[in-house]
Amino acid sequence: MELVSESVKTKQAQSFLLSDKQTLAKQLQQYNTTLESLKLRIADSEEQMKVFLAEALKSTQEDRHLAVNLETTRWELADAEKELKWLKSAVFSSEKESEQIQRKMDEVQAKLDSERSERKTLDEEFMELNRKFVEMSSESGEAAIQKLQDEIKDCKAVLKCGVCFDRPKEVVIVKCYHLFCNPCIQRNLEIRHRKCPGCGTAFGQSDVRFVKI
């Protein structure tokens, strides 16, 4: 009986051991499966890390390249600003020189116009004198003398007062620049008829000036 009991106990123990072994085998298989899964995940993570590191390295290199390009662009911009400043200064100087040249040209043109006007006047006077000379040459001596005397008379008449036609012109009314003899103007002032005999412009004693003709 004892042997049967021992045999039963041994079988039961073997059955328990077999069951524990199977359980442990299943757990071991699960651990192996989990371990393989972890290895795969670690491998994936390592690959991703390598990709991230490569991208980070590439990004760093690109950032360095961009920084170099930015610094180069800054230097080029500074040079361009200096050149622009120099060009503005050159343009300003050129404009000033152009203005000076234009002023000189205007002055030369004004002098040239004045000289042309004077030359034209001289030419006209010369032609008039030449005409008179030709007329005098074609006339007899007495006629020429008479003509000269008439011209002298006309010149003297121009120099005489336009009011009395007797005394020479000796004062000017500065408001209208008409000339008369002093007595005629003083008489107008005394009788309070203070208007120019030539054009009627009102004047006072302070507007009368002596002139030499």
Mind sketching the topology for me?
Layout: H1 2-138, H2 141-159, E1 171-173, E2 178-180, H3 182-190, E3 208-210
Antiparallel strand pairs: 1-2, 1-3
Explain the overall architecture.
With 213 residues, the protein is mainly alpha-helical. It has helices at residues 2-138, 141-159, 182-190, and strands at 171-173, 178-180, 208-210. It contains three helices and three strands; from the N terminus they run H-H-E-E-H-E. Strands 2-1-3 form a three-stranded antiparallel β-sheet. Strand 1 (171-173) and strand 2 (178-180) form a beta hairpin. It is rod-shaped, with a radius of gyration of 64 Å. The termini are far apart.
Question: Top keywords for this entry?
Answer:
213 residues; mainly alpha; three-stranded antiparallel β-sheet; 77% helix; 4% strand; rod-shaped
